[in-house]
Amino acid sequence: MAVRTRVHLVLVHGLFSSAKVWKAFRELVDSDPDLCDWVSVHPFQYDSPLVRLRPDRRVAETDDVADQLGTFLETELADAERIVLVTHSQGGLVVQRFLARKLWNGEGGDLARIKHFTMFACPNTGSGFFLTVRKALKLWRNPQEKQLRPFDRAVTEAQRTVLSAVVHGREYSDQECPIPVRAYGGSADDVVPPVVARGVFPKGGVVTADHFSIVQPEDRSAASYMAVRSALLEVARGTSPEEEPGAAVSGIALPPARSRTPAETSGRPLLPAPGAGEADLAPFPPPPYGKLEEGQFKGQDRQSLVASLLSGRSAQQVNVLAGLGGSGKSRLALEVADRAQRAGHRVWWVSMPELSLRMRMMAHDLGAPSITVERAWLLGSAMDLVWKLLNDCPDPWLLIFDNADDPARLGPRDGLVSDGTGWLRKPQNANGTVLVTSRVRRRQTWGDWSTVHQVLPLHEDDGASLLLERTGGLGGTNEDARRLSRELGGLPLALRHAADVIKAVNESHVSLDTDIRDFETFRRTFAARVGTSADQAGPDLSELLGREIVDQVCGIALDLLRRRKLGQSATLLKVLACLSIAPIPYRCLLGGPALGQSPLFPGATPARTAAALAGLEDFGLVDAYEREGVAERDLAHVLTLHPVVHGVLRENEEVRDRSADYYGLAVRMVLSATHLRNPDHPANWPLWSALAPHALEVARACLLGDLKPSDRSVRTAALELARLTARYLIAMGLLVPAYDLVHSLIEGCSSFGFDRDDREILGLRHEQGRIRLDREQLTLAEEELRLVVEARTRILGENDADTLASRHKLARAINEQKGDKEKKEKVELMLRSIVEAENQVRGPENYDTLVVRHTLARAMLALDRYEEAEAETRQILDISRRNHWPPSTPEILRVGETLTHALLGQAREDEAEQVIREALRDASQPADSNLVMRFRFTHVLVLLGIRGRTPEAVNKLRALVHDLDRVVASEHPLSVQAKGLLEKLEREMPG
Q1: What are 432-447's pLDDT values in tens digits?
Q2: What is the rounded CA–CA span in Å between residue 582 and residue 355?
Q3: Nearest CA to 795 among 765, 768, 773?
Q4: How many CB atoms lie within 10 A of CB 754?
Q5: Which of 65, 411, 482, 989 gets the most CB atoms within 10 Å of its CB?
Q6: Closest C-alpha to 279, from 193, 341, 366, 370
Q7: How much is the pTM?
Q8: What strands lie across the sheet with 450-454, from one edge to the other?
Q9: Burial class of 504 by CB neighbour count within 10 A (0 to 12, 13 to 18, 19+)
C-alpha cells in the first residue's frame, strides 16, 4: 500500500528488561514487505536494574520513566506525525502514567499524534507473581517493582484517567485525547495472567504465549505480531477501516451481498481459523455506551439516585430500578455504568436474552480457567461458580442485569429469585454492587435483601428540556414544550420519539401533508388520537396507559413516514419487532435475499431498505450504534428497539393477522445469515452469538407462542432454525438452555402440528441425545439415539446423512460405556459401516467423515488393535494437512492424542512423545483448559515409558495435579486419575 506519512513504532520494555527484548519484533517489521518502507522502529530504553548497589545512584521511579518517555518523544521524534506505542509488562504502566500526567497538566493537545497504544502482558491490576518474595527481600527497594504489586494507588489513578479521557475520550482538548487502546494477555502467562493483563480495558484479547514469548514472535503469523501489524496498517490509513461499499443513508449502511468462498460454494463445512479455539476467551463486551450519545441525562431525582448508587452506601447491595416501560430505567443504569467505569470499577452489562452466554463469559473474565467453566456449566453449578468469583474479586465491581421483566430467569432452576441462590444474589464482597432494571416493582419478588428504587416519569420541566435540546430549538417555546411533556406523561421514550418526529419534519426536504410542525401541533395531533382535551392535566400513568402513549406516538411517526413515501419503514419496524430485544446485527440480516423474496417488500432493493432504516432512525424508532470490542464490522453495527416499542408492535393487528409473513420473514432472515456457517465450528461462533437470541425468540414465537403461523413451511423453517441454534449452544457448552429449547419443542410438538417421529422432530431428538452424551448420561443417550436411528432409518434410509450422524453418536454413546470385548467389536463393525457410507454420501475427505473415522480409531484402541489405530489416525492427519486445516482445530488435536496412545501401545514411546509435544504446541487453548490438561496427562504417560525419564514424568505430574487442584473439584475424573497415578509413583520411587 502507498503511504505518504511515515508511521513511527515506539517499543517500551518492562521491569528488569531492556530494548533487546524487542529484537524479534524489529526484525519482523524490517522484513515485512507491507511495512518496511514506511514504518520506523524506535525501541525506548530506560534504566531498570534488579538492584542498585552504588549508594550515589537511585533507581528511577515510574513517574521519572514516564517523563523520560515524554522527553524521548519530544526530542527524538519531534517531527513525527503518527506514533504507535507498543509495550511489554511494566512498560504499559509507564505509558499509562505518561498519558495521565500529560492530561493532568492540561497538555492533551501534545498527545494528538499518538494514534494507537497496544499493551502486552501489562499488570493492569498488579502482578502477584512471587509477591511475598519481592516484598520480603530487604535489599530490594525498587520503586518500579512496587507499582507491579496488586492494586497500587498510583496505577489505579492513572488507569482511571486513561479510561475516561483516552479510551472513552470523545474530543481532542487539553484534558481529553481519544486514542485506540488494546490490552493483550498470554494464555500461558503465570506472571501476569490474561485477566490481569486485560484489566479494565474493553478491547484486546488473549494470544497463545507466555509472559516472555508474547513479545518474541517466531514469525509474521504469530498473533502478537498480527495485532501490532493491524494497528500499523490502521494508522497508515488515517482512519479505522473503511466501510464496505453499500447503500448508505444517515449513517446506516447495508453491505453488498457476501461472496461465498469455494468451500461454501461446494457445501463443505467452514473450518475454524487458527486460534479459533480461544473464542470462549473473548473479552466481555462493554455496556452499550453508544446510547449515551442520545442526549444529556435529565432529572434531578435521577441524578441523585445515580450518585447514591455510586456511593459507598450501595456497596454490597442489590438495587432494583423499577418503573414503567419507557421511563428510562436502562438509560439510568447506563449512566451508572459509565460513571462507575470511569471511576475504575469493573462493569458487566448483562442483557437478559443473552443471560447464559454472558455469565459464562463473565466467569472467564473473572479469571476462571476454561476447565473449571466447562465443568460448572456441565454439572449445573455455574451460578455458584460465578458468585464465588465475584465474592473473591478484589476490584470494585458493578453487575447490571438489564430488562429483567421476567425475574424468574434470575432465580435458581427450582426456586424463586427471592431465595437468593440463582444468578441474582446479595454480594458478600464489600467491593460489589448489583443493579437490576425491571418493570416488576413488588418488593416480595426480589427478596428483602434487595432495595427497590421506583423510577418515576420526568417532571414536566425536565421533559421540556429534553424536547428543546433534542429538537435543536425547532419545536417552539418553553411553555409549548412543557405542555407536550405533560401530555405525554413525562415518559422519556415518548418524549424522545416526539422530538425526533418534529425535528425530522422540519428538516425534511419533502413536502408532507401534515399539520405537525412543532410541539403544539404534535400535542394536538396526539390529543386527537387519544381523546384528551387541551386543558386536561397530565395522565396518572399506569403500565397500560404508558404503552398506549408510546403506541400513539409511534403511530404518528409511522403515519409521517408513509407520507414521506417510506411505507416500507413501518413494515420493516414490525419485522424487527418479531426478533428479540437484544441488539440486532442488521447488516447480516438485511443484506441477504430474504427481504426481496417476501410479499411484505415488493420491489425491495438495498437502497430502498437503507432508506427505510434511515427513516426509522430519523424518527427515533430505532437506535443504531456500533458495539465496542467487536472485530467483525457486520456484527459491530447494530440497532435496538426499546422493549416497549417492541412489545407494542408485536401486538399490532397486522402482525398478528399476517404472522406467517412477518415471522416467516424473520425466520428466513436468520437462516439466510447463518447459511453454511456451521454452528459447531469456533470460527462461526461470533456470528451465532449475535444471532442466537433472535433465533430463539422467533423459533419459540412460531412454535410455542399463541401465534403459530398457519403456513406449515414457516413452522418447518422455525424447527430447523431451532435445531441449528441448539447445535451452537451445545458447541459453546451451554447445555442447560440447549436442553430447555429442544425438550420443550419435542414435548410440545403436537401443539404445532408435528409428531415425535417426523423428521423435523427427530432432528431435535438427535440433539437431545447429543446433550445427554456431553453430560455423560451415557445410558440415557444410548436409549434416545437408538430410537432416533430406528426412526430415521425407517423414514430416510440407512445411509442418509442424518441417519449416519445419529448412528455415529449412538456408537459413541455405546463405546464410552464400560463393556465386554464382544460389545466393543459390535461398535467397531457399526463404525466401519458408517465410515463406508460416509465415504459415499459426504466424500472421503469431508470433515464429518473424518470425525467418524476418528471415533473408529478410538474403538480400535479400546480393542488393543494399536497398529490399525495408528494407520487410521495417520491417514486422517494426512488428509487434514492436504486440505490445509489448521493444526489447532480441536478435532485434529484429539486425533494426535489418539495417535499418541496407539504408538504408546506399541512401545514406541519416542515417537509418541514427538506427537503429543506437537499437539501441546499447536493447541490454542490455555494450559488449564480441559483439552490441554488431558494432553499433559498423556505426555506424563509417555514419559513413564521412556527409560530414565520417570523423575521428569513425576515432576510434570505434580505440576498437573497442582493445576488441577487449583481449577477443578477433587472429584473431577482427570483429577482423580492424575492423583491416583501420582500417589502410586511416589510410593514406588526409591527414597
Answers
A1: 999 999 988 888 999 9
A2: 11
A3: 765
A4: 21
A5: 65
A6: 370
A7: 0.67
A8: 346-351, 397-402, 432-438, 317-322, 450-454
A9: buried
